Amino acid sequence: MCPNTLLYRLVQLWETGLARFWVEKLVPRADQCFVRNEKAGTSAHMHLAAIQLEDLTSAFFILGTGISLALFTFVIEISAGKLLAYLDRASIVTGIK
């Protein structure tokens, strides 16, 4: 096995235990992932509650907006390319430049 290959380097990284260390330190555990939430009617008493899907609504909204803009841009580029190809063919047929 050639020591310069990416696979060799990845295996070496895994065997040293560094990848497992990163995973253990950087990936949060679900039981440690809490948000502060107010009880209904009492703002003085706070309790910890697990993150719910409703807490991530804005993240999904931003993701959807980004995907929509990317799709819109892709469709515009495809349409513009087809329009330019059509106009190029039309100018060749009519002799207009």
β-strand amount:
15-25%
Radius of gyration (Å):
27 Å
Structural class: alpha+beta
Strand/helix succession = HHEEH
Query: Could you estimate the helical fraction of the residues in percent?
Result: 55-70%
Distance between the termini: 59 Å
- State the shape: flat
Order of strands, widest sheet: 1-2
Q: Provide the residue-averaged pLDDT.
A: 77
Report the sheet with the most strands, covering strand number, pairing sense and barrel closure: 2 strands, antiparallel
Task: Compute the number of helices.
Answer: 3
Quick one: how many beta strands? 2
Weakly predicted, low-confidence segments? none
Describe this structure in words.
The chain is of the alpha+beta class. Helix content is 60%, strand content 15%. The termini are far apart.
Topology readout:
Blueprint: H1 6-16, H2 18-26, E1 34-39, E2 42-50, H3 57-94
Antiparallel strand pairs: 1-2
